[in-house]
Amino acid sequence: MPVNQVHFYHFRSFSDYQADFSPGCNIIVGPNGSGKTSILEAIYCLAYGKSFRARHIRYLLNHQSDFYQLSANYKHLNIDQTIQLTFQPPQNLDRKLNGTPLASPSILAKMMPAVFIDTGTHRSFAQTPKYRRDYLNWCCFYRFPRYQSAIQRYNRILSQRNHYLKQARVLGQEGLKVWDEPLVYYASILHEDRLSMLRELQVCLSDMMKTLAPHLPDIHMTYLPGWPQGKVFSDVLSATITQDIQSGFSQNGPHRADLKLEIDKQYSVHKYFSEGQQKLLSYALKLSQLKLLQNFDADAPGLLLVDDLPAELDRRSRHAVLDYLLNANNQCFITGLASQDFPQGQPSTIIELA
C-alpha cells in the first residue's frame, strides 16, 4: 500500500513540487530549510487531515498564495487511489478520494495509517500523559472496530457532563445521573479495549526491544485507567461528585488514563534511561504500532515517517533501525542532511532537495 507519487501546490515553502517514491525505504536528504520535513508533513496531512507540528492547517499555507493543495497516488488493496486535500482560508478544507468528497474523515485514516517520529518523540513520551494516551488510542482505533465510535461518544457525554458540573450548584446534583450512566457504559468499552491492546503491545514491544536494543533491560507496560485502581468507575463517580462540582470538571475517567513504562515494574524508564536510550525506546514503541497493525491487518502495513534519523540515533542504533525497516513490510520516508549519514549499499531510494 505505497504512496507512489505526491504533488504539492503552495504548501509550506513549495510553490509546485512533485516526487515519485519507491514502495520500500525512501531517504530524503538536503540542507536545513530545503523542505524535507514538509514532505513528511504533507503525507501525514493527507492521511489525517492535520499536521504533526502546527496547531491548525492554515499555518501550512505558503505566504505568497491564498490556497494550498496536496495530492497523492496511493495503492490500497492493489487498487490505485487518488487522495487530495485542498485548503483555502479561513476554514475551507476539502478532502477527496478519487474525486469524491469524503463521507467521514476516518476513511483515509483507516486506509493510510501513518506513524511519525522526530527529535522530540522521546520527550513527548516522557512528559505528556496525553501523548501516551493518544499512542494507546491510535492502536485501539485500528484494532477494534467499535473503539472510534465509543471514544467519540464518551468525549461528547463527558463534555456535556462537565458543562452541567459548572451549573450543578444551582441546578442540583440529581441532573448528573443523566450523564453518568452512558459515561460509565462507554468508559467500560474503552477500558476493556485498552487492556486488551496493552497485552498485545507488551508482547510486541518486548520483541522489538530484543531486535533493536538487546543490551537494554525488559520494559514493562502498565495501564492506569484514569481512576483509582481496584475500584469501580461508577462508584468513583458517585463518591467524587462534590469534588467534581467544586472543580467544574470530571476528575476521573478514561480521559485521565496513562501508560507507565518501567523496568522491573518499579523504575520509570524516563528516569532510569539516558536520553539516547529513551530515543531508541521511542523507536521501539512506534515500530511496535506498525508491527501490531500488520498482525491484525496484513493489507494495511502502514507508513513510517522519520524526521532527521541521523540526529536521533548513534551509528549502531541507526543501523539496527534501518536493518529492521529494510526487512519490514512498511513504506518508509526518512530525512537527513546528507546521504553519507546513512549506510551505503542498502536498497533504498535517495531523494535530494536543493
Characterise the protein shown here.
It contains 13 helices and 14 strands. The protein has 354 residues and is an alpha/beta fold. It has a 6-stranded antiparallel β-sheet, with helices on one face.
Count of individual beta strands: 14
Unreliable stretches, pLDDT < 50, 5 or more residues? none
- The end-to-end distance, rounded to whole angstroms, is 29 Å
Order of strands, main sheet, comes to 2-1-4-5-6-7
- Which term fits the overall shape? globular
Helices and strands, in order, run as: EEEHEEEEHEHHHHHEHHEEHHEHHEE
Strand percent estimate: 15-25%
Q: Helical segment tally? A: 13
pLDDT averaged residue by residue: 91
What kind of sheet is the major sheet?
6 strands, antiparallel
* Broad structural category: alpha/beta
**Percent helix range:** 40-55%
Cα Rg: 22 Å
